[in-house]
Design brief:
The chain has two domains: about 1-80, Roll (SH3 type barrels); about 85-320, Fumarylacetoacetase-like, C-terminal domain (Fumarylacetoacetate hydrolase, domain 2). Strands 1, 2, 3, 4, 5, 6, 7, 8, 11, 12, 16 and 19 form a twelve-stranded mixed beta sheet that branches. By secondary structure, the chain is of the alpha+beta class. About 15% of the residues lie in helices and about 30% in strands. It has six helices and 21 strands. Strand 20 and strand 21 form a beta hairpin.
């Protein structure tokens, strides 16, 4: 099942994606009182849908049946003003999780040895078609990274790998926008270290969406094609099978530090093809492959970046200059 959040009369509500349509259970209940009952209020926010998923999923299926039969609660997806499907309580981030990306960049002490652990917040999130702001005071080297994002649905701490996927509600896409000149730092001897705070956590650095796809439609997250395009040029092209640490392993690792709670999001790293790979000043090492095109430079105002993951969709954002 594929969920979206959208703006309805100034408020965010949850809809179910049904081909070219978006079905709103709350609208069905308004049009046909009693059709779905009082529990339909859980569709006010995605957080409520996740928290009450045992009620929400059957209600969503019933809403689809009613809408297909009567047309109630249905709007064209193309005209819906999509919001980020969820505003995460926390975004836990795993860096250096594809061998191909590790090979194209300057290494840190932990690259390829353990997940590089950093955090983004809901303050970083912008929706599908939202703008990524290039702030020249912050960075001259703004880069994008397509990443599979895990939406946690069931709480847990010290979750074993064998049980990890039971804690997933679904999956979405995050563009891990990065200020490379804030991230990559050099010691006097020429060796590299990363500053993952200022390089990763800033306004508009986490475009997220457009949809959340539940685990019944993605039972295996390690078989998904993943790609990105800038102005139509293919920049990244890989498959989630190329992750060093799988979705299950990342859930296990992060749950050692924190109790994972419904509504948290974990992002899982990016494959090769970032603009960093062509930046020799910051240790970039272009390797190519899979039809990807080397970046002519970092993201600039007017650029459009599309992040695509099989079975989820395309997350599209434009870059604009800071006011």
């Amino acid at each position: 099942m594929k969920f979206a959040s959208y703006l309805h009369e100034g408020k965010t509500r949850v809809g179910i994606v049904d081909g070219p349509k978006l079905v709103d259970p709350l609208s069905i209940e308004q049009q046909q009182a009693g059709a779905l009952g009082p529990d339909v209020q859980c569709f006010s926010t995605m957080q409520e849908v996740i928290a009450k998923q045992e009620l929400a999923i059957p209600l969503a299926k019933k809403a689809l049946e009613i809408s297909r039969r009567t047309g109630a609660g249905s709007i064209d997806l193309g005209v819906a003003q999509l919001a980020a499907p969820i505003m995460p309580t926390t975004i836990l981030c795993a860096g250096s999780n594809y061998l191909s990306h590790n090979a194209e960049k300057a290494s840190s002490d932990t690259s390829g040895k353990e997940p590089e652990f950093f955090v983004k917040t809901a303050d970083c999130v912008v929706p599908h078609l939202g703008n990524i702001v290039l702030d020249p005071i912050l960075t001259k080297k703004l880069d994008g990274e397509v990443e599979l994002a895990i939406v946690i649905g069931k709480p847990g701490r010290h979750i074993p790998k064998e049980k990890a996927l039971e804690h997933v509600f679904g999956y979405t896409i995050v563009n891990d926008v990065t200020a490379r000149d804030r991230q990559v730092r050099y010691r006097p001897d020429g060796t590299t270290w990363y500053e993952l705070g200022r390089g990763k956590v800033f306004d508009t650095s986490a475009p997220l969406g457009p949809f959340i796809v539940t685990t019944d439609d993605i039972p295996d997250p390690q078989v998904l094609n993943i790609s990105s395009r800038v102005n139509g040029e293919l920049r990244q092209n890989s498959n989630t099978s190329q992750m060093i640490w799988s979705v299950a392993e990342l859930i296990h690792v992060f749950s050692i530090n924190l109790t994972l709670r419904p509504g948290m999001v974990i992002i899982t790293g990016t494959p090769s093809g970032t603009a960093w790979s062509t930046d020799k000043e910051l240790g970039g090492k272009w390797s190519g492959g899979n039809g990807i095109v080397p970046a002519k430079g970092y993201l600039q105002p007017g650029d459009e970046i599309e992040c695509e993951i099989e079975k989820i969709g395309v997350l599209k954002n434009s870059v604009i200059a800071a006011a």
